[in-house]
Amino acid sequence: FKQRLDWIYSDYYDFGKNVKIVEKNESGKAEVLFSSENDLLAICLSEENRLKYLKIANVADGTVCEFIEEGEVNLHIAECKRTINSKNWEKVKLQFKGGLTNSFGLCGILDKNILKVVFYTAFREDKLDSINTTNPVLLKATVGTKQKTSALDWNSSKITILNKEFEHIKIQLDSDGLR
After folding, report:
1. Bridge partners of 125?
2. Secondary structure of residue 113 in the 3-state scheme
3. Which of 17, 65, 93, 178 fits a disulfide with 73 by CB distance 3.0 to 4.6 angstroms?
4. In the β-sheet with 72-84, what is the strand arrangement from edge to edge?
5. Residue 133 in contact with residue 127, Cβ under 8 Å?
6. 32 exposure class (CB count in 10 Å sphere: 0-12, 13-18, 19+)
7. What backbone torsions phi and psi does residue 29 show, to the nearest 5 degrees?
8. In angstroms, rounded to a whole number, what is the distance separating the alpha carbons of residues 119 and 71?
9. Which among 8, 11, 17, 33 is positioned nearest to 107, based on CA atoms?
10. pLDDT at residue 131, rounded to an integer
11. Is the pTM of this model over 0.70?
């Protein structure tokens, strides 16, 4: 494992029992800490350092590999946004898709099989909350489609990425972008 980890520039990852995903861009400036009894590897992604040969240019802010057993990991993929609304929630799902495909490549480099994938959205303000939304139209399904509306899929604990359903966890941040 150490030999394969050496193939990755150390500037792009954090390794230990406590690791951070840091978003420096003002549109989602945040810091999310992951802790585990297992070893963790956090890779911060951007459109500049993603796998360029993949067609999906958008990526989530970071991926955390949680090492479960020899050769197996759980993936934790995180995106940070200041505000969640219907427009940027659709972009977050695209970033999750890019983050997941990049994570497939990372796990290949590390020679690890993926057991489980969990997606996280860290945010300060929720404009899609079904109770507090000012636009109830967001809660209605689109006529003639099977696709969930943004608000319905945001308010669920599941998300569909690459035609597969995964767990989705929302992380409410404080005004400084910390949890």
Report:
1. 83
2. strand
3. 65
4. 13-23, 30-44, 62-69, 72-84, 113-126, 164-172, 158-161
5. yes
6. buried
7. -45, 120
8. 21
9. 8
10. 60
11. yes
